[in-house]
Amino acid sequence: MARRGSYAKGIAKREEILSVALERVASLGFRRTSIKDIADAVGLTQAGLLHYFDSKDELWVAILRRRDEDDKDAQWDAPDLAALLAAVVRHNTEVPGLVQMFVNLSAAAATDPEHPAHAYFRECYEAHRSRMTADFRGMQDDGRLRRDLDPEELASVLLAVSDGMQIQWLYDPTRDMAEHVELVTRLAMAEVTARS
User: Fold this and answer.
1) Average pLDDT of 32-51?
2) Could you point out which of 102, 130, 161, 162 has its C-alpha 20 to 30 Å from the C-alpha of 151?
3) Phi, psi of 29, deg, nearest 5
4) 134 in helix, strand or coil?
5) Which key words tag this protein in UniProt (predicted)?
């Protein structure tokens, strides 16, 4: 029984660490959030905190995964995945530190296949591209999306616009990330709308 209790306490502590880390990165920023700050906030030493993760980079990946779970659980008001992407990007303006973390990891560190975040980003892009491609095919089937567009290419372009606008937004917060994502969607639907 003691072993089972220890295991449950370990899971609870890991969840506490992730919740605190997610909140701190979102509000303070990726660069201003240290392992020491997170450890202090949850009553652990830095070594004690890293006992729950293989490395600092593994912690960052776990934070991104937690963010994804929270976003998936949120009730987004969106008629399709393109609109959902715009809603998520719009939400990201409320969590600039997480945008900074995403950009830093995806555009630099995680491009190295040996980095712990590499597999995470590959999986994310593949999953998003696949879901969006299927959604765009459905939109083509019911006449809401131009038929001369390749759904997979459109999905890739929308993801690229989303990521690129996040980088621009970090330099200039007056840039409306979601507006640009929605622009690509409107362009993809323009011919259909014009005929209606």
Assistant:
1) 94
2) 102
3) 110, 155
4) helix
5) DNA-binding, Repressor, Transcription, Transcription regulation
